[in-house]
Amino acid sequence: MSDLVHRRVLLKLSGEALMGSEDYGIDPVVIRRIAGEVMEAREAGAEIALVIGGGNIFRGAGLAAGGMDRVTGDQMGMLATVINALAMQDALEKLGGKVRVMSAIKINDVCEDYIRRRAVRHLEKGRIAIFAAGTGNPFFTTDSAAALRAIEINADLLLKATKVDGVYDKDPKKHPDAVRFEELDHNEVIARDLQVMDTAASIPVAEAAMRQRMDRHVGTVDPRHGGRFPPDSHRRCTRTSKPASCTAATCRRRRRSPCRSSNWPRTPTRTWPPPRG
C-alpha cells in the first residue's frame, strides 16, 4: 500500500509546454520527457489525471482577438486540447501506461465521453485519465476545467505546470525585479490578482478548500479514508443510532447526508468514529 501524502493528483499542463523549442505544435522530445515523469509518479502509486491546454495549436481568446467569433474560436481551442490529449496518450502508452482520454464534447470515434463516475473508476484501476475539451463550454479556459475536474474526482492535489518556476507578483519574463512567493493561500491569490490561474478557476478551488475545512471541523470526514466519508459499514442514523440499513421511513429520509444538500451545514448523518454499544 502506498504511503504517499497526496494519492490522487490532477496535473494541469499548458499547451505551450509541449512546444519545446518549436514555434508551433508538439515537440516529440518534450512530450516523451513529460510522459516519463508522469509514469514515474504513477509507478510510485499515485492516481494521475491530466488536463492539457491547447495554446500550442489554437487559443480561443487569441482567435477572437483577431476577429473570429469567440464561441467558434473557443470550440477550435477545445479540439486543440483533444489533439494534445491524444498525443500524450500515445506517449504514455509507449512507456507502458494504461491511459483513457475523456472528452467534454462528444467525439465517440476518438475518445470516451467524460462521465465522472467512469473517470473515478479509471483512476481506481490504476489508469491515467486525460480530460480533454475543457469544460465543453465556450468562455471557460482549461484552468477552469482543471479546477472543476479536480473537485469532481476528489483530487488530493491540483498542480499547474507552467513556463516559470513558481508564483511571482508580476511576470518575471517582463519584470526582472519580480518577487517569488514561497507560500500563498487561495484568498491572497484572488485578492492580489496574481494570475496563477484564471479567477474563474481560483474561486471554485478556494470554495472547495473551505468546504473541506468545514467538513473536518464538524467531524464528517476521517483522514484515514483519504479525506472522504467513512465506509458505509460505519454509517448510522442520527435519530435511532441504528445502522444505515434501517428501513424505517423516517430513517430512510434522514439517511441522506445533509452535508451534500443546499441546506448545509446541519447535523451530519455520517459520524466517525462509530458510536459504541
Polypeptide structure, described:
There is one protein chain. This protein is of the alpha/beta class. The chain folds into two domains: 8-163, Acetylglutamate kinase-like (Carbamate kinase); 232-277, no CATH class. The protein has helices at residues 28-43, 60-65, 70-94, 116-124, 142-152, 186-192, 199-218, 249-254, and strands at 8-13, 47-52, 99-103, 112-113, 128-132, 157-161, 167-168, 180-181. Strand 1 (8-13), helix 1 and strand 2 form a beta-alpha-beta unit. Helix 1 crosses helix 3 (70-94). The longest helix is centred in the N-terminal third of the chain and has 25 residues, at 70-94. Mean pLDDT is 78; it is low at 214-236 and 243-272.
